[in-house]
Write a structure and sequence with these properties.
heterodimer; A: alpha+beta; three-stranded antiparallel beta sheet; 4 helices; 21% helix; B: alpha+beta; Gyrase A, domain 2; Elongation Factor Tu (Ef-tu), domain 3; six-stranded mixed beta sheet; globular
């Protein structure tokens, strides 16, 4: 299932593993990315903790953990080439995989229709 | 970027080109009391690269344009007067030429940096937007005994920058091809007299074009008819000037930095220094001439982060990874699209100010290696020959 947060992240859940990235809207607002910093594999994050940093030419932005969990994999490709996030934010531009502490918590997040209504 | 000089309750001013920015879908931001284009749909990165590859057109109408005209009508008297406030050789600026200069304060700090152009009968000063009211008041307070100080309203100012700038402007003003870097001319563009200088803030060849407000949109659209010309916002203007090693007033220089600390002493000629025929006689001369002789404690330098993370304004600098005391700070920093690497500028204690010195910058609680570097970060392309 694909879910969204108000901070413009998306999650794709398979079992208890969520792949997390930022939305088209976020990528477009941020502009061309020039730097990405990802969390460490093995890090335990609470919902709302800073998980990653992205930078455009002009500014840095924090990306937050949408739900609590353990980082089990990060996408080195976007560290090597941040432009992948702008080109393919919902696919190849994924940030990290999170083993969720509580898979039921995902139900509290927005579905695609609700997110589309939010960003207009 | 610099902040808003006015209080939040005052409505933002608009430049004469505002309608064009809206039509071009610019993303606007408040800057120095004006609503200015930060970027257009192309985005900061691509606008930056386009300027260095082709031509970018910037609206900089928010900047101040101030005429200094001697009561005598003789431009040399205006130059003499201005030398009372600026440690430069203004008398040496011939008609049709302009020069970079800075207004100094009694403590030796910098009130503003500016361009001074000799238009033959009067001087035209182009000053920073956030400082223009301060500058006009400063000029009036000191020079109105011998000069009229006229802050021009109803003018626009555009910068056309890049290797294709000349080709674009020559379609409207063929004589621009005769101009070399830092020349200033009154040229007719689409039937109206404009003031054009061959200069800019990007490190590229280009022109700065001062026009009456009411024809500015027509002239901008005339330039956009050349497909090589794209609109470029203040976001890319900042990354372009940073790569070119140019100071931003309010970030890299201000009233707390002397020209010696700011490594701008090339702007202070021998004639205004100790033993020069017009030694001193400008605000802060004691401090500044003293620093030229005895040195300073800190100096502005270029900085190259070793990794990929940009190191932005406000980051503290340290001599070693685990030092407690900062030895400097970053005043401008970001990503250089043409350099394809992060670049910064800041002040460091002089003992560590030599190029290749390795120091550390604190970013998000971590100490990142950063190397002192010469400026500019790119090759510049001024048309000097």
């Amino acid at each position: 299932m694909l879910k969204f947060t108000e901070d413009h992240e998306w999650l794709r859940l398979e079992g208890d593993i969520a792949t997390v990235g930022i939305t088209d809207h976020a990528a477009e607002q941020l502009g061309d990315l020039v730097f990405v910093e990802l969390p460490e594999v093995g890090a335990n994050l609470n919902k709302g903790d800073g998980a990653a940093v992205v930078e455009s030419v002009k500014a840095a932005s924090d990306i937050y953990a949408p739900l609590a969990g353990e980082i089990i994999e990060i996408n080195q490709a976007i560290v090597d080439d941040p432009s992948i996030v702008n080109r393919d934010p919902l696919g190849g531009g994924w940030f990290y995989k999170l083993k969720l502490t509580d898979t039921k918590a995902i139900e509290g997040l927005m579905d695609e229709a609700a997110y589309k209504a939010l960003v207009g | 970027m610099g902040g808003d000089a006015l209080t939040a309750s005052e409505p933002l001013k608009r430049t004469p080109l505002h309608g064009l920015h809206e039509d071009q879908s610019a993303r606007m931001l408040p800057f120095a009391g004006y609503e200015m284009p930060l970027q257009y749909p192309l985005g900061v990165l691509k606008e930056h690269l386009h300027t260095r590859a082709a031509a970018g057109l910037f609206d900089v109408s928010h900047m101040g344009q101030i005429i200094l005209r001697a009561h005598s009508g003789n431009v040399l008297d205006a130059a003499r007067a201005l030398e009372r406030l600026i440690p430069a050789d203004i008398l040496d600026v011939a008609p049709g030429r302009q020069r970079y200069a800075f207004l100094t304060s009694r403590s030796g700090g910098i009130i503003d940096d500016l361009m001074v152009a000799n238009l033959g009968d009067e001087l035209l000063l182009v000053v920073n937007a956030a400082r223009k009211l301060t500058d006009a008041e400063h000029l009036r307070a000191h020079l109105s005994d011998t000069c009229d100080i006229i802050h021009l309203e109803h003018r626009a100012l555009m910068a056309l920058q890049g290797p294709r700038a000349e080709a674009a402007l020559m379609r409207l003003a063929p004589e621009c091809v005769m101009m070399r870097f830092m020349d200033v001319r009154r040229l007719a563009i689409m039937g109206t007299e404009c003031v054009v200088s061959r200069s800019g803030y990007t490190g590229e060849d280009g022109f700065e074009i001062s026009t009456p407000a009411d024809v500015s949109r027509e002239i901008a659209e005339g330039l956009f008819e050349d497909e090589a010309v794209a609109p470029v916002g203040l976001g890319a203007r900042d990354s372009l000037r940073l790569e070119a090693g140019l100071c931003l007033y309010g970030s890299d220089i201000d009233e707390t930095t002397t020209p010696v600390e700011a490594a701008l002493t090339w702007g202070i000629p021998k004639v205004r220094r100790r033993h020069g025929s017009r030694e001193g006689e400008f605000p802060g001369a004691g401090v500044i001439l003293g620093q030229l002789e005895n040195g300073v404690d800190r100096r502005r330098v270029g900085l190259r982060p070793e990794g990929r993370a940009p190191v932005r304004a406000g980051a503290r600098l340290f001599a070693a990874e685990a030092s407690d005391e900062a030895i400097g700070g970053v005043t401008s920093g970001g990503y250089g699209p043409s350099v394809e690497a992060p670049v910064s500028m800041g002040y460091v204690t002089v003992a560590l100010a030599s190029p290749e010195t390795q120091i550390f910058a604190e970013v998000r609680g971590k100490r990142l290696p950063i190397t002192v570097s010469t400026l500019p970060f790119i090759d510049t392309h001024y048309k000097c020959g």
